[in-house]
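Z., the sequence and structure:
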Amino acid sequence: MDRLRSLSIVMPFHDEEANVDRSLRAALDVAPRLAEDIELVLVDDGSEDGTYAALERWREGMPQCIRILRHDLNQGYGRALWSGLQEAHKEWVAYTDGDGQFDLSDLLRFLPHVSSDKVLTGVRRERSEGWLRDCSASLWTCVVNRALGLELRDVDCALKLFPRPFLQQIAPRSRGAAIDAEIFLEAKGRGYRIQEIEVAHYPRLHGRSSGLRPRVIARAFLELGLLTWRLHALRGQRRFPTRTEL
């Protein structure tokens, strides 16, 4: 497949004012090579800096392909991401973070593998944030795989591509970092194949990541625990949960 017919690119932002211009410029540069019809769905998750104003400047200049969702208060990464994924209108839906650590041109390498029964996800060749983040990400992936019966190399890589019908079947509850784990569980349970494709990962040029904050870590493990409990409870009934149950 040379190009998709239509593609939504979802990008959550939280206090990323200094990264907005670079991230959107890169997205709009690669977009014509990815799809004939494109939209950017930008989510400002209660930023306290000038992120929303920076996003608005881009929307005013390109109203035909940019939409902005705004949370008045910070609701967490999972909620911000799901807000954007729900509002995506195109046939295929990709997402990446607004911090510029992933190159959307890597999605070109996804195109030969696109299928309506697949979820495509990146796996970082190398993490660019040092040994502590590398170790924590590997540990998190191992815990998720063990808890949910998955076989992933990089559960929280923020470069993914979904067929929109899959997203219309699910309703994730996770508000924090467990969102990716929950989406993968839904994909597996509903018969979608999951394929990992190697992608690059770049250093953050501006701002600070919140991934290792104790509150963020605690929420992720709490949500994973609740997700695991619900899964095992429903497995006892020998059926995969419906959209509203999981």
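The radius of gyration is 17 Å. The helical segments are 17-34, 51-61, 77-86, 131-148, 164-167, 179-189, 214-235.

Let me know what you think.
H.
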